[in-house]
Write a structure and sequence with these properties.
Blueprint lengths: L7 E5 L3 H13 L3 E5 L5 H8 L3 E5 L7 H9 L9 E5 L4 H9 L4 E5 L4 H16 L1
Parallel strand pairs: 1-2, 1-3, 3-4, 4-5
Length: 130
């Protein structure tokens, strides 16, 4: 697995414990982490920090992850940021939403292991380089 140094990852999840779990995994793998529990903050954080990747809960209490992805896709500097959606439900409807979006969207089901999240991130960054 290739570890990217100084790549910025924005994590968005309303569960504080899961957010901290992911942040710790990513920091231990040398990623810079920006995190929020609010879906309403994502666009502003993405515009001001320009992360290399966003890990986004699909079902946030204040905004749907798919709506956030739609907003990001309309922003010039944010439209190409790959998104890994994370959901506790992982229904066929979730998969349909992701398939309808561009190829820079991925879907993982909670709970997610350290190995699974890092392998997915590695796959995303390898695809960007290709």
């Amino acid at each position: 697995m290739i570890k990217e140094i100084n790549k910025k990852i924005l994590i968005v999840d309303d569960e504080e414990e899961f957010l901290d779990y992911l942040a710790n995994i990513l920091r231990s793998a040398n990623y810079d982490v920006i995190k929020t529990t609010s879906g309403r903050e994502v666009l502003a954080l993405a515009k001001s920090n320009l992360p290399d990747l966003i890990i986004l809960d699909l079902l946030l209490p204040d905004k749907l992850g798919s709506d956030i992805a739609e907003e990001l896709s309309k922003e010039k500097n944010c439209s190409k940021i790959p998104i890994i959606f994370i959901t506790g439900l992982n229904t066929k409807e979730d998969e349909k939403i992701i398939r309808e979006k561009a190829s820079n969207y991925y879907l993982l089901a909670k709970p997610v292991s350290r190995e699974e999240i890092l392998a997915t991130i590695d796959r995303v960054f390898q695809k960007i380089k290709a």
